[in-house]
Write a structure and sequence with these properties.
single chain; alpha/beta; 2 domains; 9-stranded antiparallel beta sheet; 19 helices; 17 strands; about 40% helix
Length: about 575
């Protein structure tokens, strides 16, 4: 039986995800699997016997390690012979891994793998079929969220190998779990059987690039899914030879096998601290074309160049952006109108925000652009509210509440959605924030933006502030989005973004190369790199190169040396090779 640390002990070291390599690790995984299956009632509790099926010989196994010990594991079935087939056959021949007879309560992936009706769209036979599952977590850690983390490691491995579409065939009782996460039903008739009883299994198709919602729903229902659910995954056409040339493990789970020995990396933060970074619905919001251009050190690109920037945003997977402050008039108004018009005409899947003061003229400027384009716009209406700003402007709280109510009600009447932005939130006390938020939300605002306007906050302060606002809106029953917008005066903007996400922010703001007022904003590229490393969020390096190349060329800002080295081939970031692909 596998020996593991207690849940308390597990909070100190950093968890390490990688593919299993040695015979000992394979044995530890199968022993853990047998232990979990016995507790769940799948197998008779026969201590020396370990469940092994034919598909294990076609699988790659990924484990979660804590202080060198396996505490969770799962498998991913690929076509052809798996790398551990010889080892599994040897261990079986030695009596260390005896194969149990088929049990009516065992998993049934072997049957489903051959159900043609589930794979009607694969008629050409050129698509690679894989399955991942058999995810088991040590019983002492069942409530720790480790299972979800491991599923994401398997998910990252699938994406890294070019797998893009997933299938699930589930009983009707679980159909709702998947539908609410955006899965598409392939066949209402259903197929297959379970435990000898005919069951109408419903086949569903899933986009693995947008699988976070499915994971969250599925994991909440893991007790049911353990008995009924299983995954089938299919990639776009790629031959097996092409797959052999890809790295053998997902970036989040690599052990650098073949180049360096696997080394346990110690960390002092809680091991499961970063799980909130995985949650569904998290958005990144680009402020380059609004707050970024307020830097006196950058060039203001042409409207045409800004239009190409929108393509890079979408290539990068960033689907919300602030396109300007039209209340400024002149060139800013014209460029904002042009960009919003492009989004509408080209039907770009971009959610657009326009900034404005809590002033009638700014609200009406945004409204005119919305009406001309026919696009639903969000007005990001900002108001300085800290005691320092009140002293400078000679405002009192009563005046702030009046400005808020008038501007938000006007914007809503004009058909705009409203994000209410409290400037300098990080230096504003609760007795000012609470009545302002009450007023804005009662007037119709659908989002609140918490700001660190002068880069005052530390990560701990950012976490506490976002948690305070989250608890406030929940306490009063408001269903609103929470944004975080921070500057980099202390060099902590990206760290503060991560802390804000952990505390419950739904959307965080950043700019290309971190450009913005004074020393700048949170850097979008560094935020993406951190989210990729900490949560396995997919990172599209070609798109990131193009995004940074656009910023370097059109904003006339240098790309930091560390990013040049990381992204590689800096001379190909923009221009004759990359930009025409989306121009």
């Amino acid at each position: 039986m596998l020996s593991v640390e207690s849940k308390t002990d597990l909070t100190a070291p950093l968890l390490h995800f990688r593919e299993l390599e040695s015979d000992r690790e394979l044995l530890d995984y199968f022993r853990l699997r047998h232990l979990v299956y016995c507790k769940e009632g799948y197998l008779e509790p026969r201590a020396p016997a370990i469940d092994l099926d034919a598909f294990d010989c076609r699988s790659r196994f990924v484990g979660a390690f804590s202080q060198g010990k396996l505490v969770a594991g799962g498998r991913m079935i690929l076509p052809g012979e798996g790398p551990h087939r010889a080892a599994l056959e040897r261990l079986t021949a030695q009596g260390q891994l005896p194969q149990l007879p088929a049990s009516p309560r065992s998993y049934h992936s072997q049957e489903i793998f051959d159900l043609k009706s589930v794979f009607n769209y694969c008629r050409d036979g050129s698509k690679v079929l894989v399955e991942f599952g058999r995810v088991v977590v040590d019983p002492e850690l069942r409530s720790s969220g480790l299972g979800l983390k491991l599923i994401h490691a398997l998910h990252g491995l699938a994406l890294h190998r070019g797998v893009e579409l997933g299938f699930a065939a589930v009983p009707p009782k679980l159909r709702g779990f998947y539908e609410k996460s955006g899965c598409r039903i392939l066949d209402n008739k259903g197929v297959g059987s379970y435990e000898g009883i005919t069951t109408d299994l419903i086949p569903l198709v899933i986009d693995l690039h947008q699988l976070g919602g499915v994971f969250r729903v599925a994991y909440r229902a893991r007790r049911h899914l353990a008995r009924y659910g299983f995954w089938q995954v299919c990639s776009e056409p790629h031959c097996l030879e092409e797959h052999r040339h890809l790295p053998e493990a997902a970036p989040a789970a690599q052990s650098l096998a073949g180049r360096l020995p696997a080394v346990e990396v110690h960390g002092w933060e809680p091991a499961l601290q970063r799980l909130p970074l995985l949650r569904e619905g998290l958005q990144l919001h680009d402020e380059t074309l609004r707050d970024g251009l307020q830097s006196p050190s950058v060039s203001d690109p042409s409207s045409e160049a800004k239009g190409r920037f929108l393509d890079w945003l979408l290539e990068l997977g960033v689907q919300t952006a602030n396109l300007g402050l039209p209340g400024a008039g002149g060139r800013v108004y014209q460029h904002t109108e042009d960009l919003v018009g492009q989004v509408a005409r080209r039907k770009l899947p971009l959610q657009v925000t326009c900034a404005g003061r809590t002033h009638r003229d700014d609200v009406l400027a945004i409204s005119r652009i919305a009406q001309k384009s026919g696009l639903q716009l969000e007005a990001g209406l900002f108001l300085g509210c800290s005691p320092l700003r009140q002293m400078c402007e000679q405002w009192d709280l009563k005046r702030l509440l009046e400005l808020t109510d008038e501007a938000v009600r006007l914007a809503v009447a004009e058909g705009l959605s409203v994000m209410f932005v409290t400037e300098d939130t990080s230096r504003t006390p609760p007795h000012i924030l609470e009545p302002l938020y009450h007023t804005a939300l009662q007037a119709g605002a659908s989002a609140i933006c918490i700001t660190d306007t002068v880069g005052h906050a530390t990560p701990h302060g950012a976490f506490q502030l976002v948690r305070f606002v989250r608890e406030f809106v929940q306490k009063h029953g408001y269903q609103v989005r929470l944004d975080w917008h921070g500057h980099n005066d202390r060099g902590l903007a990206v760290a503060n973004c991560l802390a804000a996400i952990e505390a419950g922010a739904d959307r965080v703001h950043a700019t290309a190369l971190g450009v913005g007022e004074r020393v700048g904003n949170a850097s979008m590229e560094r935020l993406l790199l951190q989210l990729h490393r900490l949560s396995g969020r997919p990172l599209k390096l070609p798109a990131l190169r193009g995004y940074l190349g656009w910023a370097a060329r059109h904003l006339e800002q240098p790309i930091p040396t560390d990013l040049v080295s990381l992204l590689n081939e800096p001379n190909e970031m923009e221009g004759t090779h990359d930009e025409p692909a989306v121009a």
